[in-house]
Protein backbone atom coordinates (compact mmCIF):
# COMPACT_ATOMS: atom_id res chain seq x y z
CA UNK A 1 0.00 0.00 0.00
CA UNK A 2 1.42 3.37 -1.02
CA UNK A 3 1.41 6.12 1.60
CA UNK A 4 1.93 9.82 0.92
CA UNK A 5 4.22 12.06 2.98
CA UNK A 6 5.21 15.70 3.32
CA UNK A 7 8.49 16.76 4.95
CA UNK A 8 8.61 20.05 6.85
CA UNK A 9 12.24 20.86 7.71
CA UNK A 10 13.91 24.28 7.60
CA UNK A 11 17.46 23.02 6.91
CA UNK A 12 17.81 22.10 3.24
CA UNK A 13 20.59 19.52 3.77
CA UNK A 14 18.62 17.77 6.53
CA UNK A 15 15.48 17.77 4.40
CA UNK A 16 17.25 16.31 1.36
CA UNK A 17 18.91 13.62 3.50
CA UNK A 18 15.58 12.60 5.07
CA UNK A 19 13.88 12.61 1.65
CA UNK A 20 16.60 10.39 0.18
CA UNK A 21 16.54 7.99 3.15
CA UNK A 22 12.77 7.60 2.90
CA UNK A 23 12.86 7.08 -0.88
CA UNK A 24 15.61 4.44 -0.64
CA UNK A 25 14.45 2.56 2.46
CA UNK A 26 10.68 3.02 2.22
CA UNK A 27 9.56 2.88 -1.43
CA UNK A 28 5.98 2.42 -0.16
CA UNK A 29 6.06 6.09 0.95
CA UNK A 30 5.66 8.70 -1.78
CA UNK A 31 6.89 12.17 -0.83
CA UNK A 32 4.41 14.56 -2.43
CA UNK A 33 5.90 17.83 -1.15
CA UNK A 34 8.47 19.48 1.11
CA UNK A 35 8.39 22.79 3.00
CA UNK A 36 10.99 24.82 4.89
CA UNK A 37 8.77 27.18 6.89
CA UNK A 38 5.37 27.50 8.57
CA UNK A 39 4.11 29.60 5.65
CA UNK A 40 5.28 27.06 3.04
CA UNK A 41 3.87 24.20 5.11
CA UNK A 42 0.48 25.91 5.35
CA UNK A 43 0.35 26.42 1.58
CA UNK A 44 1.30 22.79 0.97
CA UNK A 45 -1.17 21.32 3.47
CA UNK A 46 -4.02 23.45 2.12
CA UNK A 47 -3.51 21.77 -1.25
CA UNK A 48 -3.15 18.19 -0.06
CA UNK A 49 -2.98 16.31 3.23
CA UNK A 50 -0.52 13.42 3.43
CA UNK A 51 -0.78 10.13 5.30
CA UNK A 52 2.44 10.93 7.20
CA UNK A 53 3.84 14.33 8.14
CA UNK A 54 7.54 14.57 9.01
CA UNK A 55 7.57 17.70 11.16
CA UNK A 56 10.58 19.57 12.50
CA UNK A 57 9.94 21.39 15.80
CA UNK A 58 12.02 24.51 15.14
CA UNK A 59 11.30 26.28 11.84
CA UNK A 60 12.74 29.59 10.69
CA UNK A 61 9.46 31.51 10.99
CA UNK A 62 7.91 29.62 13.92
CA UNK A 63 7.48 26.07 15.16
CA UNK A 64 5.88 22.80 14.14
CA UNK A 65 3.12 23.57 16.65
CA UNK A 66 2.18 26.65 14.62
CA UNK A 67 1.59 24.32 11.67
CA UNK A 68 -0.61 22.04 13.80
CA UNK A 69 -2.61 25.02 15.12
CA UNK A 70 -3.38 26.13 11.55
CA UNK A 71 -4.65 22.60 10.80
CA UNK A 72 -6.33 21.33 14.01
CA UNK A 73 -8.14 18.58 12.07
CA UNK A 74 -5.03 17.22 10.37
CA UNK A 75 -5.47 13.48 9.77
CA UNK A 76 -1.81 12.78 8.99
CA UNK A 77 0.27 10.62 11.34
CA UNK A 78 2.98 12.92 12.70
CA UNK A 79 6.63 11.99 13.03
CA UNK A 80 8.34 14.78 14.96
CA UNK A 81 11.96 15.32 13.99
CA UNK A 82 14.07 17.27 16.45
CA UNK A 83 17.70 18.15 17.05
CA UNK A 84 19.38 16.45 20.00
CA UNK A 85 18.43 18.49 23.04
CA UNK A 86 17.85 17.18 26.57
CA UNK A 87 14.87 19.52 27.11
CA UNK A 88 13.23 18.38 23.88
CA UNK A 89 13.69 14.73 24.82
CA UNK A 90 12.20 15.39 28.26
CA UNK A 91 9.20 17.14 26.70
CA UNK A 92 8.49 14.23 24.35
CA UNK A 93 8.71 11.78 27.25
CA UNK A 94 6.29 13.80 29.39
CA UNK A 95 3.81 13.92 26.50
CA UNK A 96 4.41 10.24 25.57
CA UNK A 97 4.79 11.26 21.93
CA UNK A 98 7.22 9.61 19.53
CA UNK A 99 10.08 11.52 17.97
CA UNK A 100 13.20 11.03 15.85
CA UNK A 101 16.40 12.67 17.03
CA UNK A 102 18.70 14.27 14.50
CA UNK A 103 21.15 12.87 13.56
CA UNK A 104 19.17 9.62 13.39
CA UNK A 105 20.22 6.12 12.41
CA UNK A 106 18.41 4.23 9.66
CA UNK A 107 17.03 1.85 12.29
CA UNK A 108 15.57 4.77 14.29
CA UNK A 109 13.90 6.15 11.17
CA UNK A 110 12.54 2.69 10.28
CA UNK A 111 11.11 2.27 13.81
CA UNK A 112 9.52 5.74 13.75
CA UNK A 113 7.82 5.01 10.43
CA UNK A 114 6.64 1.61 11.69
CA UNK A 115 5.19 3.23 14.83
CA UNK A 116 3.58 6.04 12.83
CA UNK A 117 1.76 3.53 10.63
CA UNK A 118 0.31 1.88 13.74
CA UNK A 119 -0.31 4.88 15.95
CA UNK A 120 -3.44 6.78 16.80
CA UNK A 121 -3.17 10.56 16.56
CA UNK A 122 -1.90 12.16 19.78
CA UNK A 123 -4.70 14.06 21.49
CA UNK A 124 -4.66 17.85 21.64
CA UNK A 125 -4.02 17.58 25.38
CA UNK A 126 -0.85 15.53 24.80
CA UNK A 127 0.32 17.97 22.14
CA UNK A 128 -0.28 20.79 24.64
CA UNK A 129 1.88 19.00 27.24
CA UNK A 130 4.63 18.71 24.63
CA UNK A 131 4.32 22.34 23.61
CA UNK A 132 4.18 23.68 27.20
CA UNK A 133 7.15 21.59 28.35
CA UNK A 134 9.21 22.63 25.33
CA UNK A 135 8.36 26.32 25.74
CA UNK A 136 9.34 26.48 29.44
CA UNK A 137 12.10 23.88 29.97
CA UNK A 138 13.05 25.23 33.41
CA UNK A 139 9.48 25.08 34.73
CA UNK A 140 7.97 22.05 36.43
CA UNK A 141 5.53 20.44 33.96
CA UNK A 142 1.92 20.34 35.18
CA UNK A 143 1.01 17.02 33.59
CA UNK A 144 2.46 13.77 32.34
CA UNK A 145 1.07 11.26 29.83
CA UNK A 146 1.22 7.64 30.97
CA UNK A 147 1.14 4.74 28.48
CA UNK A 148 -0.88 1.88 29.97
CA UNK A 149 -1.40 -1.39 28.10
CA UNK A 150 -4.54 -0.17 26.33
CA UNK A 151 -4.64 3.63 26.55
CA UNK A 152 -2.81 6.83 27.44
CA UNK A 153 -3.80 8.54 30.68
CA UNK A 154 -2.96 12.17 31.45
CA UNK A 155 -2.13 12.80 35.10
CA UNK A 156 -1.26 15.95 37.07
CA UNK A 157 2.22 15.66 38.56
CA UNK A 158 0.90 16.86 41.91
CA UNK A 159 -1.60 13.97 41.96
CA UNK A 160 1.19 11.36 41.96
CA UNK A 161 1.91 10.15 45.51
CA UNK A 162 4.57 7.62 44.57
CA UNK A 163 5.79 5.22 41.90
CA UNK A 164 6.61 1.60 42.59
CA UNK A 165 8.68 -0.81 40.53
CA UNK A 166 7.03 -4.02 39.33
CA UNK A 167 9.71 -5.92 37.40
CA UNK A 168 10.21 -3.84 34.20
CA UNK A 169 6.96 -1.95 34.78
CA UNK A 170 5.92 0.89 37.09
CA UNK A 171 2.81 1.31 39.23
CA UNK A 172 1.75 4.93 39.79
CA UNK A 173 -0.13 5.50 43.07
CA UNK A 174 -2.39 8.57 42.81
CA UNK A 175 -3.92 10.89 45.43
CA UNK A 176 -7.41 9.51 44.77
CA UNK A 177 -6.24 5.96 45.60
CA UNK A 178 -6.17 4.83 41.96
CA UNK A 179 -3.24 2.87 40.57
CA UNK A 180 -1.94 3.20 37.00
CA UNK A 181 0.16 0.35 35.56
CA UNK A 182 2.71 1.61 33.01
CA UNK A 183 4.94 -0.56 30.84
CA UNK A 184 8.17 1.35 31.46
CA UNK A 185 10.81 0.92 34.15
CA UNK A 186 11.00 2.89 37.38
CA UNK A 187 14.40 4.20 36.30
CA UNK A 188 12.79 5.77 33.22
CA UNK A 189 10.38 7.75 35.41
CA UNK A 190 12.95 8.39 38.12
CA UNK A 191 15.20 10.15 35.58
CA UNK A 192 12.22 12.20 34.38
CA UNK A 193 10.70 13.16 37.72
CA UNK A 194 13.62 13.60 40.14
CA UNK A 195 14.20 17.24 39.07
CA UNK A 196 10.58 17.95 40.13
CA UNK A 197 10.55 17.06 43.84
CA UNK A 198 10.42 13.31 43.42
CA UNK A 199 12.99 11.27 45.33
CA UNK A 200 14.20 7.72 44.65
CA UNK A 201 14.29 6.35 48.20
CA UNK A 202 14.70 2.69 47.36
CA UNK A 203 15.41 0.45 44.39
CA UNK A 204 11.65 -0.08 44.09
CA UNK A 205 10.24 3.28 45.22
CA UNK A 206 10.08 6.87 43.95
CA UNK A 207 8.18 9.29 46.20
CA UNK A 208 6.65 12.76 45.77
CA UNK A 209 8.38 14.85 48.47
CA UNK A 210 5.17 16.82 49.06
CA UNK A 211 3.41 13.62 50.16
CA UNK A 212 5.84 12.70 52.95
CA UNK A 213 4.73 13.31 56.54
CA UNK A 214 7.70 11.82 58.45
CA UNK A 215 10.84 9.71 58.29
CA UNK A 216 10.72 6.95 60.91
CA UNK A 217 14.20 5.76 61.93
CA UNK A 218 13.14 2.46 63.51
CA UNK A 219 12.65 -0.84 61.62
CA UNK A 220 15.50 -0.06 59.26
CA UNK A 221 14.06 3.36 58.34
CA UNK A 222 10.90 4.11 56.38
CA UNK A 223 8.77 7.04 55.20
CA UNK A 224 5.31 7.66 56.53
CA UNK A 225 3.17 9.29 53.82
CA UNK A 226 0.28 11.69 54.31
CA UNK A 227 -2.14 9.09 52.96
CA UNK A 228 -1.10 6.66 55.75
CA UNK A 229 1.10 4.42 53.60
CA UNK A 230 4.65 3.45 54.58
CA UNK A 231 7.53 3.24 52.10
CA UNK A 232 10.87 1.58 52.92
CA UNK A 233 14.10 3.59 52.60
CA UNK A 234 17.22 1.73 51.52
CA UNK A 235 20.37 1.96 53.65
CA UNK A 236 22.15 3.66 50.73
CA UNK A 237 19.50 6.37 50.45
CA UNK A 238 18.95 7.06 54.16
CA UNK A 239 21.40 9.99 54.51
CA UNK A 240 20.08 11.62 51.28
CA UNK A 241 16.49 11.34 52.52
CA UNK A 242 17.32 12.84 55.94
CA UNK A 243 19.26 15.71 54.34
CA UNK A 244 16.51 16.58 51.86
CA UNK A 245 13.76 16.42 54.48
CA UNK A 246 15.84 18.65 56.79
CA UNK A 247 16.19 21.23 54.00
CA UNK A 248 12.44 21.14 53.35
CA UNK A 249 11.61 21.87 57.00
CA UNK A 250 14.08 24.68 57.55
Describe the overall structure.
- It is a single chain.
- The chain is an alpha/beta fold.
- The chain folds into two domains: 133 residues, 3-Layer(aba) Sandwich (Rossmann fold), CATH 3.40.50.2300; 102 residues, OB fold (Dihydrolipoamide Acetyltransferase, E2P), CATH 2.40.50.1020.
- The protein is 34% helix and 32% strand.
- The chain has a five-stranded parallel sheet with strand order 2-1-3-6-7, with helices on both faces. A five-stranded antiparallel sheet has the order 12-11-10-14-13.
- It starts with a strand and ends with a helix.
- 30% of the residues are buried.
- The model has no long low-confidence stretch (mean pLDDT 88).
Radius of gyration: 21 Å
Quote the beta fraction: 25-35%
Total helices: the number is 8
* CATH fold-type name of the largest domain: Rossmann fold
CATH architecture of the largest domain: 3-Layer(aba) Sandwich
Terminal Cα span: 64 Å
Give the biggest sheet: 5 strands, parallel
Please provide the count of β strands: 17
CATH homologous superfamily assignment of the largest domain: Response regulator
Shape: elongated
* Category by helix and strand content: alpha/beta
CATH class category label of the largest domain: Alpha Beta
What's the number of domains?
2
Secondary-structure element sequence?
EHEHEEEHEHEHHEEEEEHEEEEEH
Point out poorly predicted stretches.
none
Mean pLDDT, to the nearest integer, reads 88
- Order of strands across the widest beta sheet? 2-1-3-6-7
Instruction: Note the quaternary state here.
Output: single chain
Helix content: 25-40%
